Amino acid sequence: MIIFGASGHGKVILEILESNNDTDIHVWDDAEKPPVWEYPVERPLPAGEPVPGKLVISIGVNATRKKVAERFKDSASFGTAIHADAYLSKRATVGEGTVVMAGVRVNADARIGKHCIVNTCASIDHECVLEDYVHISPNATLSGDVKVGEGTHIGAGATVIQCIKIGKWCTIGAGAVVINDIPDYATAVGSPAKVIKIKNI
Question: Would you say 115 and 132 are in contact if contact means Cβ atoms under 8 Å apart?
Answer without folding.
Answer: yes
